[in-house]
């Protein structure tokens, strides 16, 4: 197996163009598992750990740009106040050692429906920045997921960053697993309130072939929330929101849980996260 080690983004893009069958690797949290279990044997690995342009964060046109290989630990420590939903999701990823290596870019590249950060990215309205030797393009994150472990990257492209608006309202993330840490999600849900635009963002994980929004739930709750009079929410509103989120999922039965359990759990997570977010909004 060839091991390619570029030391700049330009070198990485040239290597990607010259070796489109090479598998990009940064933290290795997904790729190394597949190699260790002999589920994948690529002709080459493209190591991105020495490319400085793929680490760090900045503000671009009012949005936060997170370079693709920035580890979860830095997102939690340095961006938790501005991107609380993504920070919550990042805290649920593996162990501290994995959070020191793994990244949002790797989570996107793997495109697993169970990836922990996908719901938070969807709820916040993230964009994915993609580059090749042909140029740079940006894609809304919901258009990036094409299927189970399939994404919108062309063979010569790399994910180089994600862009998100700083939170303008409360954000929440919740996940069901067989234990509290170091576990693949049975299902996950993220919610973001956008009071300025009276909009609600949602993200469902591990309950469909791809991470996805719950558009009917978003439209319903945005129209029903008493934005100007933050009083406690009626049980009927919370129940209907949970039902619409569950209806947006397309789960399967597998070793982690049945489709019926996932739908039920999602309705509970939706009600809880909306209650927590609205309580926070009401206290501001």
TrEMBL record:
InterPro entries according to UniProt: CO_DH_flav_C, CO_DH_flav_C_dom_sf, Diverse_Substr_Oxidored, FAD-bd_PCMH, FAD-bd_PCMH-like_sf, FAD-bd_PCMH_sub1, FAD-bd_PCMH_sub2, Mopterin_DH_FAD-bd
Cited Gene3D superfamilies: 3.30.465.10, CO dehydrogenase flavoprotein, C-terminal domain, Uridine Diphospho-n-acetylenolpyruvylglucosamine Reductase, domain 2
A Pfam family assignment: FAD_binding_5
Domain named FAD-binding PCMH-type: residues: 1-169
Residue ranges of coiled coil: none
One GO MF term attached to the UniProt entry: oxidoreductase activity
Keywords: FAD, Flavoprotein, Oxidoreductase
SMART domains noted in UniProt: CO_deh_flav_C (SM01092)
Protein name: CO/xanthine dehydrogenase FAD-binding subunit
Originating species: Amycolatopsis jiangsuensis
